[in-house]
Design brief:
With 159 residues, this protein is an all-alpha fold. The protein has 7 helices and no strands. It is globular, with a radius of gyration of 19 Å.
Length: 159
């Protein structure tokens, strides 16, 4: 998402078009790696290694996303994109900090070999609603009245 939004046409994807599908290829590779351990009945804790890799990948993705938002706040040409990036960054920090800390702690315990994990609480997922609301607000605040943006999209879907 950070590669595409808030700019419609990202300079990064223009220079490096392979970055879009590369994330899917890496994700598929990590899935295949982690899925091998799910049904290893001889070693029931083997899945923790697969989860550790998934947690590290998710954490790297979060850092890249936050970094791209900071980059857009600092180097964007338009104030609208800077403000949208600020709102999304604030929503991401509030929304993903609890689950990010949970994943970081569990990854560190897996890497250290202790395999002691904190029990997951669904309450951690409630904070992600803040990210969705802030992103929706950032889009609606600046694009709601832009008829030249919405009209072609709505007329093409009405056919």
């Amino acid at each position: 998402m950070a590669l595409y939004f808030p700019d419609e046409e990202s300079r990064w994807l223009g220079r490096y078009p392979f970055l879009g599908p590369a994330a899917y290829v890496v994700s598929l590779g990590i899935f295949v790696y982690a899925a091998r351990f799910l049904f290893d009945y001889q070693n029931p804790l083997a899945y923790a290694d697969g989860w550790g890799v998934c947690y590290i990948y998710a954490f790297i993705g979060l850092i890249v996303f936050l970094g791209r938002m900071l980059y857009r706040i600092r180097f964007s040409d338009t104030p609208m994109v800077r403000e949208q990036s600020r709102l999304i960054l604030l929503g991401a920090l509030v929304g993903f900090a609890p689950i990010g800390l949970y994943m970081a702690f569990n990854t560190l315990t897996i890497v250290s070999g202790k395999y002691t994990q904190i029990a997951f609480s669904p309450v951690l997922l409630l904070f992600s609603v803040v990210f969705a609301l802030m992103t929706a607000y950032a889009i609606a605040r600046y694009r709601l009245l832009e008829a030249d943006f919405w009209q072609p999209k709505s007329s093409s879907t009405a056919r």
